[in-house]
Design goal:
The chain has 3 domains: 109 residues, Butyryl-Coa Dehydrogenase, subunit A, domain 1 (Orthogonal Bundle); 89 residues, Butyryl-CoA Dehydrogenase, subunit A, domain 2; 145 residues, Butyryl-CoA Dehydrogenase, subunit A, domain 3. The chain is 55% helix and 14% strand. It has a 4-stranded mixed sheet with strand order 1-4-5-8. It has a 4-stranded antiparallel sheet with strand order 2-3-7-6. The protein has a two-stranded antiparallel sheet with strand order 9-10. The radius of gyration is 20 Å and the shape is globular.
């Protein structure tokens, strides 16, 4: 039995990598990181032309009707390129509408999401990862009030899916009265995080409650783990390439046993993660009863492995590892944000223990 990716999946991932090499090379990423007003609209157009916004949307609404594993493979490619736009909001909003939207809501929003006309963001951090002081959204009389933090793509989204304190999901239009947005300062300059403030903002409820929220959480964990996997791949590749060309004491540093061990340890730590992430993506659609647990394992384990790889790759580069010229810090900080988004590894492991009945 073959448990590897299909030829179509490999071709799609390779094709996206070529697209990103043209649309979002490192110089384009560096330009985005240095300009807070830059929305990377050109990169979004390239991803839209590729069809990524509609990857999990049914064909009836103009999407590709693919699986979450396919979306995870695309997220892996985006992580490799530290792409300054993501598909996290588009995929999670599409899933929310598919799982909990009315026929009217699906007809109104899914075609526009698939075409890239509308950008989406999902504000579920407080409901999934725990609310910080002053954060959290409450609902009363069809209006939502409160604050949502660390919302990827929230600054520019035309459609917001917001979770309240009880786990209910609500659809909010980006032009709604009473909605305020503010950029949040963070370590990762390749993505913008938003702080959203709601003051009696009109919202449409989505059905399903906690069950749908859990599915969005699982999908988010898988996509973040895949993004981290792609970033780690590049950090290892850069470390190995540098070790092959940097000379010290009359020989390349890659010939020293200590450096060989550092590179081998990184590869040995990361390789099992690949099948873990791929299986989590597969299980989301094919084995939903396993999805939450394997998604938690993927998110928590990649968070720990990526920290080791980021540190070790920088050590192999020596002083060059921290320079802006090399750009390694973009991947280093990328995995650092992924580690904490939708819950750090400690919290995710605690939830996994609860799922298995190991803790109350």
């Amino acid at each position: 039995m073959d448990f590897s990716l299909t030829d179509d999946q490999r071709m799609m991932q390779e094709s996206l990598s070529r697209t990103l090499a043209e649309a979002a090379p490192l110089e384009r990423v560096r330009k985005f990181a240095g300009d807070p007003a830059d929305q990377a609209a050109d990169v979004w157009v390239a991803l839209t032309d590729f069809g990524l916004p509609g990857i999990v949307i049914p064909e009836a609404y103009g999407g590709l009707n693919l699986t979450l594993l396919d979306a995870a493979l695309m997220s892996e490619a985006l992580g490799r390129a530290v792409t300054p736009v993501s598909i996290l909001g588009a995929v999670l909003a599409s899933l929310a509408l598919r799982l909990a939207g009315s026929d009217e809501q699906q007809a109104r929003w899914l075609p526009r999401l698939a075409s890239g006309e509308v950008m989406a963001a999902v504000a579920i951090s407080e409901a999934v990862a725990g609310a910080r002081d002053g954060a959290g959204v409450a609902t009363a009389g069809g209006k939502i009030t409160g604050k949502a933090l660390f919302v990827p793509d929230g600054l520019t989204a035309d459609l917001l899916i917001v979770a309240d304190t009880s786990g209910g999901l609500h659809l909010v239009e980006g032009t709604a009265s009473g909605l305020a947005r503010e950029i949040m300062t963070g370590i990762d300059q390749t993505r913008r995080m938003a702080e959203l403030t709601f003051d009696q903002v009109a919202a449409e409820p989505l059905t399903g409650g906690q069950g749908v929220l859990a599915r969005l959480r699982d999908a988010g964990w898988i996509l973040l783990a895949a993004d981290t996997l792609g970033a780690c791949d590049v950090m290892i590749e850069k470390a190995v390439a540098y070790a092959k060309e940097r000379r010290q004491f009359g020989r390349v540093i890659g010939s020293f046993q200590a450096v060989k061990h550092l590179c081998a340890e990184m590869a040995a730590e990361l390789e099992p993660c690949r099948s873990l992430v791929w299986y989590a993506g597969y299980a989301f659609d094919a084995a939903p009863e396993e999805s939450s647990l394997v998604a938690a394992h993927a998110k928590a384990h990649l968070s720990e492995v990526s920290r080791f790889i980021a540190r070790t790759s920088t050590e192999v580069h020596g002083g060059m590892g921290i320079t802006d010229l090399l750009g390694l810090h973009f991947w280093f900080k990328r995995v650092g944000l992924n580690r904490q988004l939708l819950g750090g590894p400690e919290r995710v492991r605690a939830l996994a223990a609860q799922m298995q009945g190991l803790t109350a």
